[in-house]
Design a protein that fits this description.
With 448 residues, the chain is α/β, with parallel strands linked by helices. Helix content is 36%, strand content 19%. It is globular.
Length: 448
């Protein structure tokens, strides 16, 4: 389903550009209000949160004004982690949740994510229906929803719910390093770990509106690893700007990605009998080593498109409770309907406590297949199945690799890039295969 403005994870772009500006957000808010009315929503409020970007307050206000024009009251939560909005929708009896954020992007970008009444992200169809309503004439302002409203104690409620993953004082005696990316988790994640008894070493915890993700956070874990190694911690946790994912490091200062986290969580779930339907959902990006580790333990792995909302959709259809992405989005339906970086890190801490194993040991349960990736900037995203050389190269490599490797070629959902990935049993095989794909792609695609 083609969408003009929505991408893999909401709307995102440079602030002040043709889409991310106050005028467009007002129109978007009004289109969302019309869409909600078409689905039968009436007097329920709409929750709006944001991350720490300087452009956030004005964009959130514009979105709320647009909703008010359509008859919906916006209730502003201020700076909050994205998962807190997802979790609060049922508690607040809201018609929708909105978060003004550009996640891990630089401070000059912004955007918005939307959550349905069950806390899940909107579907492709929902987003297409909203886009179809953009540009419609706006009515006169309505008295309903003209008061922006505000929410008190929002972060505290989120922290209180998150720490239920572990018993009180479960982390007493622990030292944990946290990098909150100068973003939306700067207050919440340290508060959660301290409430559980941990000593917290913090970086990236002084947002000023322009420093979100600047050399810190999940995209830049180097400083966290150095802090973890020098500080004698049990683990390190780095969030992205809005807090719906995390990247971990072990006590030796070595980074774990989402595949390693998902594997150790799935294996523990299989041991405890808590992994629903003995199924783990990952995306096409995840390493084949995840499949091997989980299937050898008696479980199964199914794969979705890239994007945590597609993971969640497949989890529902498969009756699974756990899924996520190698980028660090971890979804566990026992704790919420969408990704939550704080909860994911506490789940890992729970496994460490239950097994008595340090994180450096738990991570070894995943043995990766050698992998190579390449990204090619393209001027035009020509449908791959209409090409000749590239599909032929893909088919040839798939025959050669069989079940001992895989090939993935796709366009980025958020950037003008063709992404190439190969996994195989040896580095030599991977290197040769990726070069064959690059040669085929460059022979017939208009590269930037």
């Amino acid at each position: 389903m083609n969408r003009r403005y929505f991408g893999t994870d909401g709307i995102r772009g440079s602030y002040g550009g043709p889409v991310v500006n106050e005028g467009f957000f007002l129109e978007l808010g009004h289109a969302v209000a019309r869409w909600l009315r078409g689905r039968g929503a009436s007097a329920q409020p709409v929750l709006i949160g944001r991350d720490t970007r300087a452009s956030g307050p004005s964009l959130a206000r514009a979105l709320g004004e647009g909703l008010a024009l359509g008859g919906f009251q916006a209730r502003h939560a201020g700076v909050v982690p994205t998962p807190s909005i997802s979790k609060a929708i049922l508690r607040e009896n809201a018609a929708l949740g909105c978060v003004v954020t550009a996640s891990h992007n630089p401070a000059g970008d912004n955007g918005v994510k939307f959550f349905a009444t069950d806390g899940s992200k909107l579907s492709d169809r929902d987003e297409a229906e909203i886009e179809a309503l953009l540009g419609k004439p706006r009515p006169a302002p309505s008295s309903t929803g003209s008061d922006p409203g505000s929410l008190e104690g929002f972060v505290e409620a989120y922290v209180e719910e998150a720490i239920r993953v572990l018993p009180m004082d479960a982390l007493s005696g622990w030292r944990v390093a946290l990098d909150t990316a100068h973003g939306a988790t700067a207050a919440s994640s340290p508060a959660a770990y301290r409430a559980l008894g941990a000593e917290v070493l913090s970086i990236g915890d002084r947002p000023d509106g322009s420093n979100i993700n600047a050399g810190v956070g999940s995209e830049h874990p180097g400083a966290l690893c150095a802090l973890a190694l020098s500080g004698g911690v049990r683990m390190g946790v780095a969030h992205d700007g809005d807090g719906d994912r995390c990247v971990l490091c072990d006590e030796k200062g070595q980074v774990l990605d989402g595949d390693e986290v998902l594997t150790l969580l799935a294996l523990e779930g299989l041991r405890r009998g808590t992994l629903r339907n003995r199924t783990l959902v990952v995306t096409v990006q995840s390493n084949l080593g995840v499949d091997r580790a989980v299937t050898q333990a008696g479980g199964r792995v199914v794969r979705s498109r890239v994007g945590d909302r597609y993971v969640a959709e497949l989890m529902r259809s498969e009756g699974a409770s756990l899924g996520g992405e190698s980028s660090g989005h971890i979804v566990n339906f026992d704790y919420g309907a969408s990704g939550d970086g704080l909860v994911a890190s506490l789940m890992v801490a729970s496994v460490m406590l239950g097994t008595g194993r340090p994180l450096s040991s738990l991570r070894t349960d995943l043995r990766r297949f050698p992998q190579a990736q390449r990204a090619l900037f393209v001027r035009e995203k020509i449908p791959i199945d209409t090409l000749k050389a590239l599909p032929a190269a893909i088919r040839s490599l798939e025959r050669e690799l069989g079940t001992e490797g895989r090939v993935l070629v796709r366009y980025s959902g958020t950037e003008p890039k063709l992404r190439l990935l190969v996994e195989a049993q040896s580095d030599a095989a991977v290197g040769a295969a990726i070069e064959r794909l690059v040669e085929a792609a460059t022979s017939e695609l208009p590269l930037a």
